[in-house]
Structure formats: structure tokens, C-alpha cells
Amino acid sequence: MYYLGLDIGSSSIKAALVEIETGKSLGVVQEPKEEMSMYAQKNGWAEQKPNDWWLHICNAIKALKSKYNISRTQIKGIGISYQMHGLVIVDKNGEPLRKSIIWCDSRAVETGQKAFQQLGEEKCASDLLNSPANFTASKLKWVKDNEPDIYKQIYKFMLPGDYIAYKFSNKINTTISGLSEGVFWDFKNDTVANFLLEHYGIENTLVPDIVATFGLQSVVDAQGELESGLAAGTPIYYRAGDQPNNALSLNVFNPGEVAATGGTSGVVYAVTNSLSAKESSRVNNFAHVNYQKGEAPKIGKLLCINGAGIQYRWLLNNLAVSSYEEMNTLASEIPIGSDGVCVIPFGNGAERMLNNKEIGTRIVNMNLNNHHKGHMCRAALEGIAFSFVYGMEIMKSDGIKPSVIRAGNDNLFRSEIFANTVATLIGEEIEIYNTTGAIGAARAAHLHKGDFEAFGKTIMDNDHVMTFMPFKDKKSYLDAYNHWKKELELILNK
Fold first, then answer.
1. Do 270 and 396 lie in a common domain?
2. Fewer CB atoms near the end CB (10 Å): N or C, the chain?
3. Torsional class of 86: left (φ above 0), alpha (ψ -120 to 50), beta (otherwise)
4. Which helix (H) or strand (E) holds 461?
């Protein structure tokens, strides 16, 4: 018997099957094979059709069943991970009234900034733990102001994962964690953020019913069976945004545990029981997947680093090298600190952790007589690693006390230079796991039974690749980091 996990990204849908008894992954498929369509009517806009997600999910389920010869009755539960901060609005018949305004759409920035000024930084920090910024609530306000005829027809708003659960079950609901990622949750009063809804003129009736993150949320109905190929009555047991789900996939639930991602952009996601939002302009704060009303809060602090893997990929594409492995080998021949060469890797747009400054990528102290592509590779890896350490310093200033870092087995963390640099400077172990969001969502379906200890053992037994230990002698790493940090601050203080 199996659980099905779905990961709804903006580029593709991934679907995974895991064995219920062992938690072992049977396989993962991706739909479509190429990237999903995205619509941008104006610069800074990004929209997708919710029913495109559903179409690709149905195709992925069909592909999984065929590839592994699985019948619909062998799938005993569903877990859903989804792209965060998206807005889906439906009418009374459950039909989308417009395309979804997805996470990377920036049209509501001004709306959120205005609300932040009018409500006050102290109120937003204490109650929302965030600025309203460009989150889902601000996107809904944008629709109200700019598409009033559509707004009048809204029955409910949903996040992307809520809509997919609805397509399976014909039930509209959401979670506290989901509402918090849209900045619809008032942490101070542990309820829906009615004061923000009132400020935006949004009716409370548009908020979906709230269900537990882990538990029986709804079941596949007859129409859901017909379209998806899953048996009617199959329960949906779990739903979460992609970053909280990535943390869950790495067994990150407790204060001090940190999940790190080193893809095109980087993410540091740390769990705390503090409602501090000192760095709310640079760090996002959401209800983690195991947040419970009336209990000590479990808050996920999320810091994004736009200039991460994209910097290393740029070098791969523009240096005379054939692979990341070759780049890592070249870098390993260069001493710590890259003989003074520094790469400031923030060339992927404005960096929130740098107070939304757009400083670009800088190459500093390059000597054309002495330095070569090996120095560039090492300096880039170190620069990206230093940006993670810099981000962790921001997190620590906001109350995070890291005890362990867990990361996926992606490009950056496959580099010993990168992982050793981060581990040594932060002074904590980095555990590497070979898992995905879809596998994590499938396994999370089992958490409706509440056995988190067994869940963690499943991840360790099936996914643990290796652990990087911090080096005791960290002087050369500290010298290199302080040199890099000095160069960064010279740029920031111009």
C-alpha cells in the first residue's frame, strides 16, 4: 500500500509514491516534461491557470500508476505541497474567476507597502510577524481595487494547494500554516487577521474553513475519482507550502533545527518558538507545519538568498569548463580565501536580506597576472557560502539558535568546499539527505497518526547521505569571511 505525494511548483508538477510500511520511495514522475506555461501580461506579473496544475496532476498520477503497475485502491492517502503565496479565487460553482496570481508576481508590492505604513510596523510585526508586502492578502486587495467586477463574484479565495485539494474532493478548506503564508493569520490573537481584512475591505466570509495540517482534511469524491484516477474515498491527510514542506522533508520540526536549500536561489528555513519579528523586513515568519493553536508556537523563519546557485551556473555557462565536478576540482586546488579574490554573488535581482538592495554580482581583487578560473570557482563557492553565513547571522539576531542544519543533496551541497565552509563558520553539523518535496509530502500523509519520531527515523533510514562536521581550526575560514563581509559592507554603505 502507498501514499501519494504531490509537489505543485511553478515550473512543473512532481508526484511521488512511498510505501506506507517503510516510507521508502517507489518513484517520482514530473509533468509536464517541459516547463509549465506562465503568463505575464505586464512586466513584473506572473500568472498560471489553476486547471493547468490539475491537468498535469492527473497526468502524473496516470503515469505513476502505469509505470509501477499500481491500482487506484492501493493508494491510501494524499499529501500536497504547493508553491507558496499564490492566489486562486473561485465563484459559487468553484470555477476560477481569473488566472492565479502566483508567488513571483510583484504587482501588489505597493499595496502591501502602503498597508505596512498605515497599520504601522509595530502592529504588523507583533500580530502578522511580517509586513503585508506582496503576499496573498495584498494580491487579493489588488484584485478588489483593479478588477472590481471579478471581486464581486468571489465566493472563496484559496492558495494553490487548497485548490488542488478542492478538485479532488469538492471541499474548500485551508490550514493555519497556509493562511499565515498569505499573511491572513494574527499570531498575537491566534485567529484570522480580521484587522488586516478590515483594512483591505475584504469580507471575512471569503476565508475558507480551516482544517488541521495533519489529519483528515477531505476525501476524493466521485468527480475527483473520474478525473484523477484515484479511488473515491481516498483521504487527503496533509497540505503545506513548499518551503515548510521542504523543512518537513528534512525532518525539521523543532526549535534550533534548520533546513537549507542550495538551488538557483538559496533558502534558510529555521524553526523557533519565539514570536519575535525583529527582522520582519528581511525575514519572513510563518506558522510551521506543526503549529497548533493554544500551544507553544512553532514558527518557521524563512530567509531567501536570490544570488546562490544561479551564480555558479553562470560560471559553468561562461567559463571554459564542462561540468560542476570539473569546477569543484579546480576550486579544490586553490587555498581557503581564494588568494584574496572575492565574489559578491547577488546578481539575481533585489535581495530582501540586504533590505531589497540590488547590488549585482561583483568580482573583487582579481589580479589578471596571478588568478585564473580556479580562483573564480573557489571564490564563487565561498561567496555563496558566505552569503548563507551572513543570512544566518541575521537569523541569529532574530532569536534563532541553530543546533543542526539539514540540507538536500543539491548542486551546492554536493560541493565539499561550500558545505565545509558553511558548517565551519556556523559551527554546526550539516546533514545531507537525498529527498524531494513530493516524497516528503507523501510521507507526511502518515503523520495523521501523529508519530513524528518514526517519521524522522524513516528519513534517516532512507535518505541520509552524509554529514559535514565543522572544522576545529576555523581561523582561515573566519579571515576569508571577514574579508568578504568587509567588501560587501563597503558596497552596502555607499
1. yes
2. C
3. beta
4. helix 452-463
CATH code assigned at 30 = 3.30.420.40
> Considering 245, 278, 310, which residue would you say is the last residue of a domain?
245
Query: How do the residues of the chain divide into helix, strand and coil, expressed in percent and rounded to 5?
Result: 40, 25, 35
Residue range of the domain that includes 478: 251-429+469-494
3-state secondary structure of 250: coil
Statement to judge: residues 279 and 423 lie in one domain: yes
The Cα 352–Cα 359 span in angstroms is 12
371 close to 331: Cβ distance less than 8 angstroms: no
| Signed CA dihedral, 364, 368, 370, 374: sign only | positive
Q: Which amino acid appears at position 435 of this protein? A: T
Q: Is 464 inside any structural domain?
A: no
For residue 354, the 8-state DSSP code is G
Same domain, 153 and 197: yes
Dist CA 303 CA 59 (whole Å): 34
Q: Are residues 70 and 199 in the same domain?
A: yes
The answer to whether residues 156 and 276 belong to one domain is no
Cα torsion 87, 92, 96, 98: sign: negative
To the nearest whole percent, how much of the chain has pLDDT over 90?
A: 89
- Per-residue cell: 211: 482544517
Does any domain span residue 17? yes
Tell me the C-alpha distance between 229 and 65, whole Å: 9
pTM: 0.93
Q: What b/e readout covers 157-170, taking b as 16+ CB neighbours within 10 angstroms? A: bbbbbbbbbbbbbe
Query: Which residue has cell 504531490?
Result: 6
Instruction: Read off the pLDDT of residues 168-221 as tens digits, 9 standing for 90 and up.
Output: 999 999 999 999 999 999 999 999 999 999 999 999 999 999 999 999 999 999
Question: What's the CA gap between 279 and 299, in Å, rounded?
Answer: 14
Q: How many domains does the chain have?
A: 2
Report the distance separating Cα 28 and Cα 38, nearest Å.
Answer: 23
Angstrom distances, CA of residue 226 to CA of 148, 168, 232, 355: 35, 10, 9, 49
Amino acid at 479: D
Same-domain check for residues 162 and 197: yes
Residues 353, 361 contacting (CB under 8 angstroms):
no
**Average pLDDT over the chain, rounded to whole?**
95
Q: Which three cell numbers stand for residue 332?
A: 579544490
Mind listing the pLDDT tens digit for each residue in 442-460?
A: 999 999 999 899 999 999 9
Tell me the C-alpha distance between 180 and 187, whole Å: 9
